Automatic annotation (TrEMBL):
Coiled coil start-end: none
GO annotation terms (biological process): monoatomic ion transport; sodium-independent organic anion transport
A GO molecular-function descriptor: bile acid transmembrane transporter activity
Keyword set, alphabetical order: Cell membrane, Disulfide bond, Glycoprotein, Ion transport, Lipid transport, Membrane, Transmembrane, Transmembrane helix, Transport
Glycoprotein recorded as keyword: yes
Annotated catalysed reactions: 3,3',5'-triiodo-L-thyronine(out) = 3,3',5'-triiodo-L-thyronine(in); L-thyroxine sulfate(out) = L-thyroxine sulfate(in); L-thyroxine(out) = L-thyroxine(in)
Protein name: Solute carrier organic anion transporter family member
Membrane topology: Multi-pass membrane protein
Organism: Pluvianellus socialis
Keyword Transport: yes
PROSITE patterns the UniProt entry points to: KAZAL_2, MFS
Region annotation (Disordered) ranges: 681-701
Record PANTHER family: ORGANIC ANION TRANSPORTER, SOLUTE CARRIER ORGANIC ANION TRANSPORTER FAMILY MEMBER 1C1
Record's subcellular location: Cell membrane
Length: 721
């Protein structure tokens, strides 16, 4: 019996073990399913966020590609275009603090989805003026439009012009004055860009924080890197889209294209700038759709459930088991509300001491000044680079955007990647990062200096860059447009209808060229017996001219090729210092001030560089204009012709001066770091005070920098201002 009872006991003990094994198996199975669900959810979010980054980068770069088109379409100066460009940053700043703080407590994916809708609404609003301000009108002499008979461009007497032509001209002017309010529709472009800035605000802080909260810790940096990579691809497609739309006439689909008398090479040409905004807006709408179906929370990875670092939303109240713990939750809510109030007051009291502590760090203060000035240089240069290429080298808007999108942007992306690769491969410490950032800026601006020698001379324009007798001159005196050869003609100094004489000189209009007759119509119009053209040739030789300005000199295409090569190398060199600069910023401040320091850094760059740089660059560029257009009812319009030499010196000079000043501050940063670093290791810790900056070996310092990039830099930088 004892043996039997022992066997039974052994049997039952074995049977009691079985349920435990099954439950264990069940828990492992559920954990596996939870892991798969987590990975699947975060990857869906990653794909959606990458598409949103692509959409916002595409629309932002497309705006840069249409700067000259908007300027011509609305007949506004470059300084006003700069205000429109800076309105995006203004919109972003209006809501960044509210979104960063309150967005973390709400349904983050849906807030991102709402931001996409707002961003798309702003993009659509930018394109709307095209449908309300009438057809685009360019300046053309009546005989070049739809002429059945020959009309003399040189009107010695108004009676020579058919009555119908004069009536038609006055009718157009009156109609233009009645619709002159349409010239103020650039305000809708400004408001649309402002709205784009508001809609874009939640994408970065909430999207990056969501990934950091729910991704496996070792995968977070990889996921964020994927998002940033896709964001770099966006500008490439943005500029290529700008190239495509610039080739299409602005009123395509509304007018007969065969009746258009200008080509995309003409200075008055305006491409279908609005079409790209409709495409970009539609992409933004599509990009926001997935976020409305994503959950507020994802399952936390097993590796992060026991982590000491909790997600941002886990700090707020999460309701679960309401029926069982309702009374308990009410008490808890009251306690936590009181705690939050005390925490807010405490944070408010610590704000000024933290700010004082931050700016008391000379490394941070000097690097902040260097970054602000350098970003002023880079933002101004990038904003007006398409205009510079068009005016300096006589390239079309289409070709300019194509070159920037296909050559310059990839060079910048490769430079940023190379900077991070160099940091990792050579295990560069903070002092080394400062040297690499300084060297990148120094050699980049040194290469930029060489572009002064790669410009084109002014085109020969009678009355502006050359006299009517062939002598070189540079003047914006309107009286110089008149000469003895056209004194018998009744010409307007405000017209801009350039023709190219057979002597290679451009004349502002056929009337100012003294042309007595014309043949043909539209693009094929030929002017004859041009008295001013004849003054530069033998009197016995017949003088003629064709529609459109003359091409730049023979050396200009070669100079443009040299410019492209140097520009690509310069873009790459300046971009190499981007990653080392961020590492320097992270390493030179105290750990508990990182989020605050990065927030102040981002705010300062946007307020002191992103907003003012396009404005004062535009004002400086406007000073180089030699011939301003005139609006239909009077007033100054957009610039028709720039002084190439003055434009080169102003555009490159302003960029270079700002760059040199930023290098001065970078040298000061390096000097302070050398003074603080110990001679044994020359490294810095995260503490910005003397005696605490150099504590670890180079290898350990680099390893810690990798860790902080993954766990601290990305979420803290993007979520907390």
């Amino acid at each position: 019996m004892e043996t039997s009872s022992k066997e039974n006991t052994h049997f039952f003990s074995n049977t009691t073990i079985l349920p435990v094994d099954r439950s264990s198996f069940k828990s492992e199975s559920s954990a596996s399913k939870e892991k798969q669900s987590c990975c699947g959810g975060i990857k869906i979010f990653l794909g959606a966020l990458s598409f949103v980054y692509f959409a916002k980068a595409l629309s932002g770069s497309y705006l840069k590609s249409t700067i000259t088109q908007i300027e011509r379409r609305f007949d506004i100066p470059s300084s006003l275009v700069g205000v429109i460009d800076g309105s995006f940053e203004i919109g972003n700043l209006l809501v960044i603090i509210l979104v960063s703080y309150f967005g973390a407590k709400l349904h983050r994916p849906r807030i991102i989805g709402a931001g996409c809708l707002i961003m798309s609404a702003g993009t659509f609003l930018i394109a709307m003026p095209q449908f309300f301000m009438g057809r685009y009108r360019y300046e053309r002499f009546p005989s070049t439009i739809n002429s059945t008979g020959s009309i003399s461009p040189c009107l010695e007497d108004k009676s020579q012009t058919p009555l119908s032509a004069l009536e038609k001209s006055h009718t157009k002017i009156n109609a233009g004055c009645e619709k002159e309010a349409g010239s103020s529709m650039w305000i809708y472009v400004l408001l649309g860009n402002l709205l784009r800035g508001i809609g874009e605000t939640p994408i970065q802080p909430l999207g990056i924080a969501y990934i950091d909260d729910y991704a496996i810790e070792e995968n977070a940096a990889l996921y964020i890197g994927c998002v940033q990579t896709v964001a770099i691809i966006g500008p490439i497609f943005g500029f290529l889209l700008g190239s495509l739309c610039a080739k299409l006439y602005v009123d395509i689909g509304f007018v007969d294209l065969d009746s258009i008398m200008i080509t995309h090479k003409d200075v008055q040409w305006v491409g279908a700038w609005w079409l790209g905004y409709l495409i970009a807006g539609a992409i933004s709408v599509l990009a926001g759709i997935p976020f409305w179906f994503l959950p507020k929370h994802l399952p936390k990875p097993e590796s992060r459930k026991d982590s000491s670092t909790s997600s941002e939303q886990s700090k707020f109240i999460i309701e679960d088991n309401k029926d069982q713990y309702k009374s308990y939750q009410q008490v808890k809510i009251a306690e936590m509300a009181k705690g939050k109030s005390l925490e807010f007051l405490s944070s408010l009291m610590n704000f000024l001491p933290s700010l004082k502590n931050l700016f008391g760090n000379p490394v941070y203060s000097l690097y902040l000044c260097a970054s602000i000035i350098q970003f002023n240089s880079l933002i101004g240069m990038v904003t007006y680079k398409p205009k510079y290429i068009e005016q300096q080298y006589g390239q079309t808007s289409s070709k300019t955007n194509f070159v920037i999108g296909l050559i310059n942007i990839p060079a910048v992306a490769f430079g940023i990647f190379s900077g991070g690769l160099i940091m990792k491969k050579f295990r560069i410490n903070v002092l080394g990062a400062a040297k690499l950032s300084l060297g990148s800026s120094f050699f980049g601006y040194l290469l930029l200096l060489s572009l002064f020698a790669m410009g084109c001379e002014n085109s020969d324009v009678a009355g502006l860059t050359v006299s009517y007798y062939g002598t070189k001159q540079t003047t914006d005196n309107e009286q110089a447009l008149f000469s003895e050869c056209n004194s018998a003609c009744l010409c307007s100094k405000n017209d801009w209808d350039p023709i190219c004489g057979e002597n290679g000189v451009t004349y502002i209009s056929a009337c100012l060229a003294g042309c007595q007759a014309s043949n043909g119509s539209g693009k094929n119009t030929v002017f004859f017996n041009c008295s001013c053209v004849r003054t530069l040739e033998s009197p016995s030789q017949s003088s003629s001219a064709v529609v459109g300005p003359c091409q730049k000199g023979n050396e200009c295409p070669k100079m443009f090729l040299y410019f492209l090569v140097v520009s690509v190398i310069t873009s790459y060199t300046l971009s190499v210092g981007g990653t080392p600069g961020y590492i320097l910023l992270l390493r030179c401040i105290k750990p508990h001030l990182k989020s605050f320091a990065l927030g102040i850094y981002t705010l300062a760059i946007r307020v002191l560089a992103g907003i003012p740089a396009p404005v004062y660059f535009g004002v400086a560029i406007d000073t180089t204009c030699m011939k301003w257009g005139s609006k239909r009812c009077g007033g100054r319009g957009a610039c028709r012709l720039y002084d190439s030499s003055a434009l080169r010196y102003v555009y490159l000079g302003l960029t270079l001066v700002l760059g040199m000043v930023s290098i001065f501050f970078s040298v000061a940063v390096l000097w302070v770091l050398r003074k603080r670093s110990s001679p044994q290791d020359e490294t810095l810790s995260a503490n910005g005070e003397r005696g605490t900056c150099g504590t670890k070996s180079r290898k350990d310092n680099f390893a810690n920098s990798d860790h902080l990039i993954q766990t601290t830099y990305w979420p803290e930088k993007e979520t907390r201002l």
